[in-house]
Write a structure and sequence with these properties.
It catalyses: L-methionyl-[protein] + a quinone + H2O = L-methionyl-(S)-S-oxide-[protein] + a quinol; L-methionyl-[protein] + a quinone + H2O = L-methionyl-(R)-S-oxide-[protein] + a quinol. The chain has a single domain, classed as Sulfite Oxidase, Chain A, domain 2, CATH 3.90.420.10. The chain is α+β, with helices and mostly antiparallel strands and 334 residues long. Strand 7 and strand 8 form a beta hairpin. Helix content is 18%, strand content 19%. Strands 3, 4, 7, 8, 9, 11 and 12 form a 7-stranded mixed sheet that branches. The chain contains 9 helices and 12 strands. It binds ligand MTE. Ligand MTE binds next to loops. The site of ligand MTE has 16 residues, from loops.
Length: 334
């Protein structure tokens, strides 16, 4: 007799939502029928009303050509190679996590068009020699771009591989001139519920916040992506500037960044706040440490029928393992 087994890597969409958030969503669903137009509930299938309200608005006027388009494609840095094929661009454009624009994988492609990319100002503050605000095009002129091939492993047990273009984060940190007392760099996404309706959801602490230690941010692998596939980043992928730290689960790689704050204090991230028993600060990839609700031993390689064994630090141990010496008491892998 044929018994159909669901493999451990086959997570349903948005399975990574912390359990208590999913429960709260259900409560919102129950209450949802009574919601007045304009009242926002939580993200999830039941809150389609939230997106409907958003979609019924006038679509934003189309933006002009991207002023940074001439910077792409940038020269590839041959030091960063892949052990697998690049994921087709069309998959990367259609399968995204960007909760500000919805919790289904296809929502960001449909809804992120509302994001305006110019003007786009990035704030650099906290423990720095001189706090400043810089327009994205001035930042792109100040620091040279390069292309790198990176793996990308989501905590939901799927993976991709892609050519990012961007700024080595250690160059950015040197340019930002943090003070010696800075221990962390805290990065935030924009906050605008008129553009991203799910940011009105009370289930998450918006704006999306993430952080790295200064040692991590100045590791050769940490990258600020401004493009992919030889062009400026697509909105659903986190335009105009996002983090790419391939040895960590994808949720560390915050999208559409508007501020970099250098701090002595470790930040509380959006996912830590939403599910502290499931998501931590470090979030380094480790096949031997399961998520509380599923195994991390394998990954589904999007765009193929492959399942691959997941590697420690997503295969980047040589570059990053030394960052975690002496931190064995910390929850490094969640
Ligand atoms: N950044 C913001 N602002 N909002 C998000 O919902 N999702 C994270 C991360 N950065 C997210 C985010 C998660 S869970 C993953 S796996 C990656 O973005 C997904 O990046 P991709 O859609 O380009 O594959």
């Amino acid at each position: 007799m044929l018994i159909r087994r669901t493999p451990s890597w086959a997570l349903p969409e948005s399975a990574a939502t912390p359990e208590h958030v999913a429960m709260n969503r259900r409560r919102f669903m129950a209450a949802g029928a009574g919601l007045a137009a304009g009242a926002f509930a939580a993200p999830g299938a039941a809150e389609a009303g939230l997106l409907d309200i958003f979609k019924s608005k006038q679509p934003p006027a189309p933006e002009g050509p991207d002023p940074s388009a001439g910077l792409y494609p940038a020269k590839r840095n041959p030091a960063f190679k892949l052990d697998r094929d690049v994921t087709p661009e069309k998959i990367n454009l259609a399968y995204n996590n960007y909760y500000e624009f919805g919790t289904n994988k296809w929502d960001p492609a449909e809804n992120a068009g509302a994001l305006r990319l110019r003007p786009w100002t990035v704030k650099i503050g906290g423990l720095v020699e001189t706090p400043r605000e810089v327009g994205i095009d001035d930042l792109l002129k100040a620091l040279p771009l390069e292309e790198r091939l990176y793996r990308h492993r989501c905590v939901e047990a799927w993976s991709m591989a892609l050519p990012w273009t961007g700024i080595p984060m250690k160059d950015f940190v040197a340019w930002a001139k943090p003070l010696g007392s800075a221990k962390y760099v805290v990065m935030k996404t924009f906050l605008d519920t008129a553009v991203a309706p799910y940011q009105a959801s009370p289930l998450y602490e918006w704006p999306y916040t993430e952080g790295l230690t200064i040692q991590e941010a100045t590791n050769e692998l940490a990258f600020l992506a401004t493009g992919a596939y030889g062009k400026p980043l697509a909105k659903q992928m986190g335009a105009p500037i996002r983090l790419a730290v391939p040895w960590k689960y994808g949720f560390k790689s915050v999208k559409s960044i508007v501020s970099f704050e250098f701090s002595e204090k470790r930040p509380k991230t959006l996912w830590q706040a939403a599910g502290p028993s499931e998501y931590g600060f470090w979030a380094n990839v480790n096949p031997e440490v399961s998520h509380p609700r599923w195994s991390q031993a394998q990954e589904r390689v999007l765009g193929t029928n492959d399942r691959r064994p997941t590697q420690l630090y997503n295969g980047y141990a040589e570059q990053v393992a030394s960052l975690y010496k002496g931190l064995e008491g910390e929850k490094l892998f969640m």
